[in-house]
Design brief:
The protein is an alpha+beta fold. It contains eight helices and twelve strands. It folds into two domains: about 120 residues, no CATH class; about 190 residues, no CATH class. The chain has a six-stranded antiparallel β-sheet with strand order 1-2-3-6-5-4. Strands 7-8-10-11 form a four-stranded mixed β-sheet, with helices on both faces.
Length: about 325
Amino acid sequence: MQTDVGIQTVWSVLGIEKAGVAYDFQWVDIEARVQAGAVRAAIDSEGLMGLLIPLTASDIIQKHDGAAVRINQTVIEGQQFASVFCTRPVLEDIFALFVEAVTRELPSTGPISAALDDTYYAWRELLAEKVSPQLLTAEKQIGLLGELAVLTQLLSVGAPRSLGYWTGPLNSQHDFRCGEDALEVKSTFTREGRRAKVSGALQLCAPEEGSLYLAWYRFEPSIGGKSVPMAVQEALEIGADRAIMKALLRRAGYNPAMEEDYASFKYKVVEHGIYRVDGDVFPRIIPRSFVAQSVPAGTYGLSYFIDLSASGDSQLDDSAKTTLFSHLAEVAL
């Protein structure tokens, strides 16, 4: 789906406009189109977010009332629509990705029912995620998957199985510390740009005597992707110490005893890169970004987003990545 702004921004604006309005739906056309007309981003009378897909006379929609998504058929101003709405606001981030998948699969001509059903069934398990304090959110799962991807690559080139260099689960400044050098990992679902969220003015500061690198991953939900239990098993098979691994995973908020609960939540990497965080070209806020060369007194809780598309020539090519991981594995403790 191509829109000038994200679908969640559209829903947010509609929600504001909906306040005090008595209509069943508030909507705006988006760029996706089917044979019967433009697809609409919509808010219903309960404030739930969804899509309205116009139907032709021959379209027959199968109704679904899943754990997080309700698909029904409705009439607005004499026009039949398939209504696709998120019934679990806590899962709106995942629902937004589901909506993007739906709009990508919708045919421009002919019946839409097959595309709608196929996408629903492909995403059904992910959208049925239980709201439980024991389960990591989807965003935290891909965060852990990113760190496990780096860990597995380091192990594959000889890093110690004792994992003392994996410091992310310990809430350290950086996710990996190998000798004097460090590597930070960022994972995202965002489809626009190469964005990453940064926490604090020190996260993108290099170690005093070393260099800092950033590993960036873009994920999307996929039944053919990898779950956290699968990534953990891969690291164990390469040689990670099982007891240490289990302890670090628990520190990261992941309970290995619940691997069956996580097994159906799979994500695939659709883009990734390794960047050297250096100089004034790389987008970041660090203490020397301020006039006084330090964060202003009395300020705290700084977080911001960067777009790695603006990082100049900081991205490493394949040869440089191979050299980097071999070096990190050699100096890791």
